[in-house]
Amino acid sequence: MRTAPYEMINGLSEVIGKYDAVILDLWGVVHDGVKAYPNSVNALEALKAAKIPVALLSNVPRRSSVVIERMENMGIARDLYSVIAASGDIAYRHLVDRVDPWYAALGKRVFRVGPVRDMSMFEGQDIEIVSRLEDAEWMLVTGPDDDFDPLSKYENMLHAAKTLELPMLCPNPDREVVRDGHQIICAGALGGRYEELGGDVRWEGKPFASAYDFCLQMFDKGPDAKLLVVGDSISTDIAGSNNAGLDVALVTGGIHAAELGAPRGTLPEREKLDALLAATGRHITYAIGDFCW
User: Fold this and answer.
1) Contact criterion met (CB below 8 Å) for 179 and 162
2) Is residue 70 classed exposed, middle or buried when 0-12, 13-18 and 19+ CB atoms within 10 A define those classes?
């Protein structure tokens, strides 16, 4: 892994002149699942004023139309970004098309795990949602049923699903996020545990290449465009950017704030960040305490 030095910056304005466009993570960068972070709307407005196109790439397991509506309710206007690509959209298109061999092999009967707000994943499809694992042909996991459920609540269910050899679709590889100041598990925690048990999991979203391909196709940027990714998760945002060969700014005040000992808006000690990057084998271009201008 590359160990090139990175810059610690106080705002995007210090480096944005090098880039033609920006790809932003949402949860942990722009908002916390409930409200926009204080500096995020100002940063989006500044990017718009600077004529820097913005694409939103999120591991959110629902359709983009739902995401847009939720952000508008947070005060994040639709005209502040040009493209939004949600991992739920990637999975949804595969489910509708059924061209990919993995998706083509799925039946109609699905057992779902996740909150009601993710039901947009089933719109316009000939799918039957069943209430018993024994009646299912596959599983869709978009998160815990309740935001504050522990992973242990699903252990017996996952063992039963493995006994039945049910394939699992997981359109959110995130293991955890911070929602309104509370750390909660995501679909990726259930998918990861199912893989540990030997289950068949199809992942959609960051850090997998399909997410960036999907985003860049929508973005319609030329091959020579210089892109900057802004994210807060080493395992998804940073790993995905490294895999795609893109420059990336790590928002250190996001999911890793506690282990770095630096709350949002502050930069951690370089030694702590160096240790985190070394432990994960990842590299970044910039460290920034918050998504701010």
Assistant:
1) no
2) middle
Helix, strand, coil percentages (3-state) for the chain, rounded to 5, are 40, 20, 40
In the predicted structure, residue 222 carries a pLDDT above the cut 70: no
Query: pTM score, two decimals?
Result: 0.82
pLDDT, average across residues 113-128: 90
* DSSP characters over 83-106: EEEEHHHHHHHHHHH--SHHHHT-
Q: Which amino acid is at 89?
A: D
Of residues 108 and 216, more confidence is placed in 108
Closest CA to 187 of 91, 76, 64, 83: 91
Average pLDDT of span 64-91: 92
CA distance 62 to 118: 5
R_g (Cα) of the chain, nearest Å: 19
Domains of the chain, each with CATH number or no CATH: 7-88+207-288 (3.40.50.1000), 104-203 (3.40.50.1000)
